[in-house]
Amino acid sequence: MACSTAATLVSGPSKAKELHVQEQKATVDNVRTYLLGLQASITQALEAVEKAAGAGGAQFLADPWAKGADERLQGDGITKIMENGLVFERAGCGFSHVKGAQLPPSATQHRPELAGAPFEAMGVSLVFHPRNPYVPTVHMNVRMIAAGHEGQPATCWFGGGMDLTPVYGFEEDAVHFHQTCKDALQPFGAQLYPRFKTWCDEYFYLKHRDEQRGIGGIFYDDFSELGQDQGFAMMRSVGDAFLKAYLPIVEKRKTTHYGPAQVDFQRYRRGRYVEFNLVWDRGTHFGLQSGGRTESILLSMPLHADWSYQRQDPQGTPEAQLLSQYLVRRDWL
């Protein structure tokens, strides 16, 4: 599937089409190679954190998969999952590269002209749920999608970002995370961080509770305005910034003392995380609507989550401060 570029629309139709296909194959191969390397580097970094924590540190289970010719999607991927570690209670990092005959509705709400078009999508998506309640949950995703009706050049766009969901808030952690996100986008335009930061705040929002999911970060979708090469370069910059944004926070908080009360609050807040992912997240909806692999799509779910009816934490406590000071839309920088 070819993504439209100005260079391929100028010369003769057959020559342009051939060049277009060659360009797209090179782009797809390069993106796939990068994403597989990104998944490997991130999971290896987490295994190093587990190993440094002591004997019994967990490792990722690698689960390669492939879709058969008789299924709604064709393609392959690798789901990597770690459970019951010393630092991470559950950590999932998945790579997927799939093709389908028809874009699902979740992917065409901003591109109605592509409704029903065949598509190709690849990406890396991760969610890490730490054991210590003082270490925040984190999410990161980078992806590329190409789609187009037969006989027309395909449209190619990028999406992704990263966001932080603390159980207990720390100002310096939020500032560090957002500064790293800003630095990753800066080479592509000073206007992108404030734009993508606002986009993240608006997206990771539980409308049914009028509540932010976390302290945000950056988020972008259906993004093609930089062109194919620069769009891919920005994807790499965001993906490469993830460990710089997250690991220093893990190292700072992973040995903080906690007890049953903190675990209880952690599981209560994880219930909110589950609500967002199942009710509002477009990535979850895209995967399920397109016939994706359920186990891989739901790798974002925590190992444990609780719900409490109309829980009210006493004013002035760290639990109450999470809502009043951190789960609000703020300019962290």
Share in β-strands: 15-25%
Distance between the termini: 41 Å
Query: Mean pLDDT, nearest integer?
Result: 88
Query: By helix and strand content, what is the structural category?
Result: alpha+beta
- Order of helix and strand elements from N to C terminus: HEEEEEEHHEEEHHHHH
The overall strand count is 9
Helical content (DSSP H or I, runs of 4+)? 40-55%
The largest sheet is: 7 strands, antiparallel
Oligomer: single chain
Neighbour order of strands in the largest sheet: 1-2-3-4-5-6-9
Query: What would you call the shape?
Result: globular
Distinct helical segment count? 8
Low-confidence stretches: 5-11
Rg measurement, Å: 20 Å
What does this entry show, briefly?
By secondary structure, the chain is an alpha+beta fold. It contains eight helices and nine strands.
State the main characteristics.
333 residues, 9 strands, globular, single chain, two-stranded antiparallel ribbon
Walk me through the topology:
Elements: H1 13-53, E1 61-67, E2 73-83, E3 88-100, E4 119-130, E5 137-147, E6 155-165, H2 171-185, H3 192-203, E7 205-206, E8 211-212, E9 216-223, H4 227-253, H5 260-279, H6 282-289, H7 294-297, H8 318-326
Antiparallel strand pairs: 1-2, 2-3, 3-4, 4-5, 5-6, 6-9, 7-8
Helix pairs in contact: 1-4, 2-3, 2-4
Describe the protein.
The strands form 2 sheets. A 7-stranded antiparallel sheet has the order 1-2-3-4-5-6-9. Strands 7-8 form a two-stranded antiparallel ribbon. The longest helix is centred in the first third of the chain and has 41 residues. Helices cover 41% and strands 23% of the residues. It is built from 8 helices and 9 strands. Helix 2 runs antiparallel to helix 4. By secondary structure, the chain is an alpha+beta fold.
